[in-house]
Each structure stands twice: as C-alpha cells, then as structure tokens.
Design a protein that fits this description.
- The strands form 4 sheets. Strands 3, 5, 8, 10, 11, 12, 13, 14, 15, 16, 17 and 18 form a 12-stranded antiparallel β-sheet that branches. This protein has a 4-stranded antiparallel β-sheet with strand order 7-6-4-9, with no helix packed on it. Strands 1-20 form a two-stranded parallel ribbon.
- Among the domains are: 43-52 and 296-368, Beta Barrel (conserved putative lor/sdh protein from methanococcus maripaludis s2 fold); 56-63 and 217-295, Elongation Factor Tu (Ef-tu), domain 3; 101-184.
- It has 4 helices and 20 strands.
- It starts with a helix and ends in a 6-residue tail after the last strand.
- The chain has 374 residues and is of the alpha+beta class.
- The relative contact order is 0.19.
C-alpha cells in the first residue's frame, strides 16, 4: 500500500514538471515570434507584343559620292599651295600655282605674265587710237557733206580707222590666248567640295597631267559600312538604318549593297544622306545600326530577363510576391531586347538582372519587386 502511494506521488510530480516545461517552451516561442520567409529584392521588366527588328551594329565612314582628281595641265614648279586637306572650297577657287620652267621661256608663268601686261597696255593704247580715228572719220564725213574736203580724204580716214580696228582685234585675240595660257598655271577647284588629298608640296616639279589634288563633294554623301558576308543576306535595299554619334541619332535607309569579293568574308552597304550626319567632316566614323531579323507580332522581353542555357531558356514571371518559371524559345536577340516564344502574356512583369541572380530563382521563390528585404 505504501509503495503505491509513493509511486502515485512520483507520477504526479513528473506530470507537474512536464506541464511546467510545456508552459515555459510556449512562453519562449511567444516571446520570439514567427520568423518571416526571406525574399529576394529584384528589378522588373515587362513583356510586350509587337514587331521585332534586331539591329546589326557596325561602323561606317562618311565618304563623298562624287570625287575628282585635279591634274596639272602644264608642267612647272609648284610655287604656291593655296588649299590643304580638309579645306572647304568653292567652284573656281584657286588651289595651286605653278611657275613653269626656265628652260622653256614661253612655258614660264613670269614670262607669260609679263607678256599679258604688255598686251593689255597695247590693247588699251590702240583702243584709244581707234576711238580718235573714229572721231576723225565721222568729222570728215560731216565736212564732206558741206563740200569742205574731198571724198578721197574721207576714204583715207576711214581706211585708217579700219586698219587700226584690225590691229585691235588681233591684239585682243593674242591677249586672250596669253591669258588662257597663263590660266593653265593656276589650278582651280572643279566644283564645291572638300580637299581630300594634296599630292604635291611646294617646290616640287609637276609634270603635265600629274595628279595634284583630290576634291570630294560633301553633299550629297554616303556612309560606307563593312558587314560580314554572313549578315549580308539578311539585309535589303530600303531597310531602316540608324546612324549614331555622341548620343545623336539619324534615320536613313540602305541605298546599295555590295557583296563580298574573293575570300575576304566581308561586304559593304552604303547609306546615302544629303549632308554629312551630325555636322561631321568627310572621313569621320559613325555607328551604323542595320535592321535585320524583322519578326511581326512577336513577344519581346528585356534581354537581361532571359536565362539562356544549352537545352532550354527561361524567364521568371512575378505573381504577387513569388516567381513562376516559364520556359521560352529565343527567336532573335539584340543588345537590349529578345524575341521569344512561350507561355507569356503582354504586360506581365519579369525579373531582370544578372545570370547569377536569375539562377537563384525557382518556382515559388519570394521576391520583392520594390527591392526591400522583409
């Protein structure tokens, strides 16, 4: 009987101790509270539906569509260079002067210039003489009408006037010829443009028909871009082109396509513009963005929303505060946008970020689109 009492007391003590332990654990849990599930702060991008046009980025050089090689028409020493590379010139502007050669007196600028000066004085002198003879002849005609002089005297004055007129015409013809010869020693710009190259220096002796200058017309001009032969088949005449320089943009179109020659593996496209873009000079380089891979009515997502892999690519759709992984097929890519196929809807929000961030995400992972960690 006594043993039963002791055993019953021990059971009661154990139950009391267990109850106390349960109350203490509950109190500890109540004091600590429930810990929240950690979330990943993320930036977001949006799914869109539209016409996708990928861009092939390359670089082009602004060049003239009209060029001319200016040559010397006579031989001689280069005495003055009046225009240099990059200079803007107008039609008829002097570019260079030659002095001719001392070995050929009549092919020397100084000799011909002296002859022109002498002829100009002679032409002016005979012009005045002819004017005086004309006045004399006209006066003799009046005197003849009044029978003051004979007809023979009138004819003499007329003949003198006509003879001087023939001499005057001959001198003027000779003067024009000498001026034309002198003009050969001054090289002129054939049209408005920019000096692209100067092939001689002051003191050089130029031979007849030797190239002296290259002149380029800056309006209109063209941008010539080198393109891989792999990309050429995706380009068409009239396709959209965006020219870019220092944050400035200009829209244009492909004007010509030149396929690759030989084994170079490259071709070129030409883009015609009215003026050098962005006020740049001929020979400057600009970024050329060529439209390729045009896909109508396709889903587009930010390029940094797609986690690409060998087997399957995926994006992460934000639903409330969790993500849903959606497999996608990449149709075309550019630096900023990808065209894809998959179970997506326009305006759905996607997680965007680095590959390391996207690799941490899976179905049901909690995210914070606002970037705050709870």
């Amino acid at each position: 009987m006594r043993r039963r009492i002791i055993f019953g007391v021990m059971i009661i003590l154990v139950l009391i101790s267990a109850a106390r332990l349960v109350r203490m654990r509950k109190a500890q849990l109540m004091g600590q509270g429930v810990r929240s599930v950690a979330t990943v702060p993320v930036a977001t991008g949006q799914v869109s539906l539209g016409d996708y046009s990928a861009e092939q980025v390359c670089y082009g050089v602004i060049t003239s569509d009209r060029q001319a090689v200016v040559r010397s028409r006579v031989g001689g020493e280069v005495s003055h260079i009046l225009a240099y590379e990059g200079d803007q010139v107008s039609q008829g502007d002097p570019l260079l002067e030659l002095d001719g050669t001392s070995a050929e007196p009549m092919a020397n600028r100084a000799v011909i210039s002296t002859a022109v000066s002498n002829l100009q004085r002679s032409v002016e002198g005979i012009r005045r003489t002819r004017a005086n003879l004309k006045a004399t002849w006209e006066n003799d005609l009046m005197l003849r009408e009044n029978d003051a002089i004979s007809q023979q005297q009138v004819e003499i004055s007329e003949n003198r006037y006509e003879e001087v007129g023939v001499q005057w015409a001959a001198l003027r013809s000779e003067l024009a010829a000498q001026k034309a010869q002198l003009a050969l020693f001054t090289v002129l710009a054939p049209f408005d443009g920019v000096v692209g190259e100067v092939s001689v220096q002051q003191g050089d002796v130029a031979a007849p028909m030797q190239p002296l200058f290259q002149i380029e017309d800056s309006s209109p001009c063209k941008v010539v871009a080198t393109v891989s032969s792999r990309d050429l088949p995706r380009m068409e005449l009239g396709a959209a082109v965006t020219l870019v320089s220092d944050g400035q943009f200009q829209q244009a179109q492909i004007s010509r396509i030149h396929p690759s020659l030989g084994r170079t593996g490259t071709g070129s496209v030409e883009v015609f513009v009215d003026q050098p873009p962005f006020g740049l000079s001929l020979g400057s380089s600009v970024e050329v963005r060529l439209a390729v891979d045009v896909l109508p009515r396709v889903l587009m997502v930010p390029a940094n929303a797609v986690l690409e892999s060998v087997n399957i690519s995926r994006v992460h759709v934000i639903e409330g505060d969790t993500v849903r992984v959606v497999p996608v097929k990449v149709l075309a890519t550019s630096a900023e946008i990808m065209a894809v196929e998959g179970e997506l809807s326009p305006k759905e929000q996607l997680v965007v970020g680095s590959d390391s961030l996207l690799m941490r995400l899976a179905n049901g992972v909690h995210v914070s689109p606002r970037g705050d960690v709870r």
